[in-house]
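#lab-general

N.A. 3:47 PM
ok so I finally got the sequence cleaned up, no stray characters, all 428 residues accounted for. can someone with queue access submit it? mine expired

B.Y. 3:52 PM
send it over

N.A. 3:53 PM
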Amino acid sequence: MSEVRPAGAFSGWECAIAGRYLRTKRKDGGVALISIISFVGITLAVAVLIIVMSVMNGFRTELMGRILGFNGHVYVGGPLLNDPNAREAVATKIRAIPGVSQVTPMVEAQGLALGPNGAATGSIVRGTAPGDLRRINLIANNIKQGSMFGFGQGEFGGNRILIGDRLAATLGVQVGDPVTLISPSGETTPFGASPRRKTYTVGGIFSVGMSEFDQVYVYMPLQQAQLFFGRDQAVDVIEIMLNNPDGIDRIKPAITAATGPNGVVTDWRSKNQSFFNALEVERSTMRLILLLIVAIAAANIISGLVMLVKNKGRDIAILRTIGAGRGAIMRIFFMAGAAVGVAGTIAGFLVGVLFCTFIAQIQGFVEWISGVSVFNADVYFLAHIPAKLDWSEVVFITLLSLSMSFIATLPPAWRASRLDPVEALRYE
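B.Y. 4:20 PM
back already:
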């Protein structure tokens, strides 16, 4: 006769009893309603945490991509910018550094833009060589009206300029319309400095999808900018683009060595440090707050299991008397609580991932239903809600939710295992 072996841990009968307890109605001593509430709470908490963190990741990625795609990654200033020969020699050395993708001598100054209808607004004028501007993909690939044809052609680079779409809307201009630029730093007269003004033709209108840039920036040929702002042959900065902006620490020493003692080197981190630090602080704070919400949702499992243990005291006593050990009782109630946590976490994972995947369609649907814009680009800088799933973070959130759910089940499961059968049956 073969030997009868006892059932192992998490055996079929333990799972069957745990599942039966979860499905039992309240009138029969079950806690189905509390289990449903716990399930919904964990689902919403996990989904919201995934969605919020993905949106914040998307914000950071989009903003970094547009800021670092529109602006340079390294900037060179100093006395060498006034000497064309020295400047070109330094630019040639920098172009030869591995990891450098583009070197752009640039004039950048503030001015006042006037439309033909009298509308006026402040602007930032950038003067770049036509070839350099064509290599700035965020501009060259996002010209919505007109083109770069004719940009840089004519005496001193010609009179065609490129402007952002929001600036064009403010001034009420389209491609081919005139725009008058006024520079506050004009020629010196006996009565003081005289503002310099000149009328240009809009050759193209670009949109990089970030209102802060589309609202104020004007591009004109480098020679024309030098003439208009009285720079002679000097430039204001040498803007350097890198293949990998995060590799700045490796490349910056080589750039500093190439510029020599007459150059001053700064990078994108110092220029935008406060902005990105604020984003990181906000991201960390939101993660902590939402993790607490997950913990609160998981804590609902405790109340449900405590009631279940109280209602099932007689069942526990009977199981103990027919040979079930304390470990079996603890596993039964552990599985009953953990099942809610696992199901809620999986549901929250699916809801969060699907929401982030189709967030653009959801935004369009909500705007269609409500008739209002739920994501104003003037306020949020971007034209749509960005979302980027960081799978390592999603896995961390999922595992953390499961861990909290498992930990929440341990106290009431342990209490059930310590229940004395004699005491439980005394008043039955």
